[in-house]
Give the backbone structure.
Amino acid sequence: MALISAELTLFLAVAEAGGFSAAARKLGVSPSTAARRIEAFEQGLGARLFKRSTRGLGLTEAGRALVEEGGALAVSAKALADQLSHAETQPSGLLRVTASTGFGRRHVAPRLGAFRLAYPQLRVELRLEDGFVDLIETGLDMAIRVGRLPDSTLRCVTLGPVTRRLCASPQYLSRRDAPRRPADLGEHDCIVVGQGVGGHLAWSFQGGRFWPTAPAITVSTPDAAVAVALGGGGLAHLPSWLVAEHLARGDLVPVLAQFDLPPERGAGVHLVWPEKPPAKTTAFAAFLKEELASLFR
């Protein structure tokens, strides 16, 4: 990465070598080309940098000043170039990530400690917020998005598909016979998210939909519905990523799994970023893909 001009680089090489020939060989140009470029460099600066004689070259006062300042600039430029190159190839610096509140709190935040143990040279800023976040405007490195992605120029890795699962606690099913088909749900205590009755409350299954028109319990967030179901409050129809760990532990039990719809095309948990990712972004993507693999089995 060239952070200082080619002319300054050539000047410093000539000054160090004490002549055009040795500097030209080092830089892969002809001595005549090197001499012409130095003359043009001097004309652009409006100052003579070398004293020319039959004995060779000597630095003028302006040339000595430029050697001192330009040499320090070259050292700083190399250090900066090395730092930038390191950031592209080695995970380091600050990683800024955004995720929806529910998914981020449940599945991302608890894993950040393990990620930093693996990459202690990285710092992480996690922003939990619902709604669309423009990565370019906010300067964030990555977003974790749940659902279907609109067409965009963002780069994307999909962690896995998202479906909906009907489930209840063993406690609830110990006192109520499990439904055998969706039509039986009208006889059960249903937990719904939202208010009122309408299409947004429909629970979709293979073969049709069920509308819990008289839910036993209505809550305002999916997390609250999980808590009610865990407490034996009834049946809940929730995103797979929200209940996968509870199902794996047996805290919740799948109900009518044979009627589950297949994942909707394009619906999933996605990692997106606005450009070719630096090492810190690819490291976090690989970490999450491995850590969250069990959610999508």
About this structure: The chain has three domains: 6-89, 93-162+265-296, 164-259.
